[in-house]
C-alpha cells in the first residue's frame, strides 16, 4: 500500500487553498477595558444529559453518571495517549447500556503493551483497540480519496470510521455510485465505504430578520451577535471575542468565508457600528475564520445566547420558486432558562497532533452545542473528528462534523456561519459559564428552489442534519491569539 507522507497543517493549507492576511489598524486600539453585560442568562438544565438520555435510551440519572465518568477519566486517557503519542488515534465515548470508552491506537504499539498501560481503575470501562493504519496513512489516504473524487464530483466529503477501521466518502443523493467506486484508488477499494449523504456546504447567508441582543448603552460588544453587511441584512453570526496574547488587542471572531468586505454590528435601536477590515483571516484548507476590530468599544469574554428562536421557511418549490410547502419551527434551548449572556471561561486546547489536523481533542460522540443567528442553539454529537469536504471550489480539511439531535425542529441554516460551538460547564455564579470549542463553518442545507437558494436543515424533511465546525485551537496556528476570558485579564491559551 502506498501512502504520501503527512505534512504540517499550516504549511499545507497555505500551499493548497488557504488565504492568509493580517490587517494593521492605523490607529491604536482603545477597547482593552473589560465590560460586563447586565443581562446574564440564568441557569438551565445540562444539555448533554438530556441528549445522552434520549438518544442512547437511558435514564437521565444514568446519563449524568456516564458523562461524569468521561469527565473523570479524561485526564488519565490523555496521559495514556501521551505515553503512546506516536500511535494514539482517537477516543470514542459509547454511551448507553453498557457504557464504555474506546481508545484507539495504531499497530505501532502491541495489544499487550496497551493493556498493561491502562490504569486499573479504568479497565472496567476503557477498551483499547488497534487500527491497521497509522496516523500518516489515515491522513494521506483520506487526501488521496478526496483528490480522486473531486476529479468527477463538485461536492464530496471524506473521513475515517474508527469503529469499523475504514475510510468513508460522502456524496450527494443521486450520485452515480458505480462511477464513484471506479474512482477509488485500487489499493484502497476494499477499505472504503461510499455513502449517499450530503457532504455539506458553507453557511453564509442573508437574514433580514436577525434579532440583535438587547443591552444597555452602545459602548460594548460581546460574542454571539449577528454580523451585518449593508444597513440591515445580517450575513453571518459571530462566536467569541479573541485577544492577541502579545498586544492584548481584541477583536470579534467569525467565519472566514463570510467575506472580506466591510461588516457591521447593530444595536437594538437600529444604530449601526462598522467593523474594520479583517484583522486576521484564514479561509480554505484547514481554516475558516477571521476577526474584526470593534474600534473603541469595550468588550470581554461573554457570549450572547437567545434561548428561544423561531421562524419559518419554504421548501419543495417548483423551478419557478412557486407552489412551495412551508415549515414553521421553534428551537428552545434548555441549557439556559432565560435569554442572555454566558461567561466564557475555558476552551478546548490543541494537542501536538492537532498541529497536523488530527483533532484527537474532539472525541467522537462528545456532545456539543452551536449558537447561530438564524436557528439559535442546537446540540448533537461529534460523528467525524477530522472531516474534509469540498464546497464551491474551496477545500476545507480536517474539520469536525456534528450530527444534530433530530428532536430540534431545525438544526442549522446559512447565516449560522461564524457562530459559537460551545459547552455550558457550570450554572452557579452570576453567569452560567461556557467552554469555547469551535467556530461554525457549514452544514447540510437543502436547496429551496427559490431565489434565497437554501433553507435550514430539518430532520423531519430531509433526514440527518449536520453542522461542521473549525476547532477553536486553529486561531493560534499563525497568530498569537487566545480566547478572551470573563473574570480574567489573561486570554485563554488554546494550545
Automatic annotation (TrEMBL):
Keywords: Signal
Keyword flag DNA-binding: no
SUPFAM superfamilies per UniProt: Trypsin-like serine proteases
Gene3D superfamilies found in the cross-reference section: Trypsin-like serine proteases
Signal peptide boundaries: 1-28
Superkingdom, taxonomy of origin: Bacteria
Listed name of the protein: S1 family peptidase
Lineage: Bacteria, Pseudomonadati, Pseudomonadota, Alphaproteobacteria, Sphingomonadales
